[in-house]
């Protein structure tokens, strides 16, 4: 007689699904304590020098969003390779193409307007997990690429206007924006835009002024300056949450191989099964093509 349970022979073990309404693990603080952020109702801005670890943070968030059963991903990555591994998990993956970027942002704006109309009709102010609508997580790696590098001046201005609208209004509609910039300057991140991001992460900066542009005015003078971060301490940042004090963190870094593994698994759990969706039924997002 054997007491060993037979090894499962069918199916793939599926872990409990994550939710975008769950706290997202992003790393540890200076005491080694875990640091979480809740993105469902807040946007996040990551700023700092190239090589500081901004894309690392975006990938950490992308991993949670990809594994969250109630999230859709919209990725804008002018460099293609920073978020490229998540393409199969994403509803839209935009490379260095301003026309495609504008199209996807206009579409998101329409989805957001529809959601607000729906909320209003129900006498509500914000989406909750119980609504069954997915959180559409929008990740933009390098705002300046779309707002100052590619496209005509008019297109760049439209990009900024659409992004600002999404950042300003998207959060209660379940459309949080996570954006990175290596150019924390007033022309790329005006104060009025910066303040719309509930979470801001300042990776290594070269001047107290650029650190202040990310974290908020006056923090460098109070001793919270991302100029303190050593260039060799990649992934270290000051993270501030709306109304709080900057906290020194070290982002949990995912290697390319780890991302590839998670993205593969996430794409698998997101695969269309063709069983639960009746043919011809468009999802909310697809309906606004
Ligand atoms: N949290 C981290 N822990 C350890 N190393 C990191 C971390 N984040 C980034 N790095 C290292 O720094 C390099 C640059 O990081 P990246 O996220 O691409 O910077 P940025 O997007 O700010 O230019 C990565 O290739 C990696 O080697
Ligand atoms: Mg980067």
What does this 3D model show about the protein?
This protein has helices at residues 54-67, 98-121, 143-149, 153-169, 191-194, 208-215, 256-269, 284-287; strands at residues 24-29, 34-37, 44-47, 71-77, 92-94, 135-141, 177-181, 199-202, 236-241, 247-251. By secondary structure, it is α/β, with parallel strands linked by helices. The protein has a single domain (26-266), classed as Rossmann fold. It has a ten-stranded mixed beta sheet. α2 packs parallel to α4 (153-169). The longest helix is centred in the middle third of the chain and has 24 residues, at 98-121. The protein binds adenosine-5'-diphosphate and magnesium ion. Adenosine-5'-diphosphate is lined by residues 48, 50-56, 203, 234-235, 250-251, 253. Magnesium ion (MG) binds next to α1.
What is the helix/strand order? EEEHEEHEHHEHEHEEHH
CATH superfamily: P-loop containing nucleotide triphosphate hydrolases
Put simply, the count of helices is 8
Quaternary organization: single chain
* Separation, N- and C-terminal Cα atoms: 61 Å
Give the C-level CATH assignment: Alpha Beta
Question: What overall form do the CA principal axes indicate?
Answer: globular
Low-confidence stretches: none
CATH topology: Rossmann fold
Strand content: 15-25%
Keywords: ATP-binding, Nucleotide-binding
GO molecular function, one term: ATP binding
Organism: Micromonospora coriariae
Protein name: DNA segregation ATPase FtsK/SpoIIIE, S-DNA-T family
